[in-house]
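Hi U.,

Before I forget, here's the chain from the pilot set. I'm dumping it here mostly so it's searchable later in email.
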Amino acid sequence: MDIALLVLGFILMFIGILGSFLPVLPGPLMSWAGLLVLSLTKVIPNDWWFLGITLAIALVVFTMDYIIPAVGTKKFGGTKAGMFGTMIGLLVALFFPILGPIGIVIWPFVGALVGELMNKADRKTAAKA
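Structure:
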């Protein structure tokens, strides 16, 4: 049983590491799931403090992946439509990786631009936001 858990834990951690580069995979949460599975084996001692702290860090990083683009839009003068467009652009990048890893940077900006233009902003203001 331990061998199956070890293999599953390492597979989850490998997928989590890939998730750091591929926008489709939730990297921090997959890596943490791998840590959790590994801690269920007899080979690796249970350290619930470590698991709790790493879960908190994984949740913060996972949440910040979605919040930072919207906050950046707001900081540079974007409206709620621009922030909404940023979130849609981020989801497009996650589920339809058209431009690969570069798309995770480009699509939120495209979403913010479209959101601002739909909000009746002129092109200069929309491009700034």
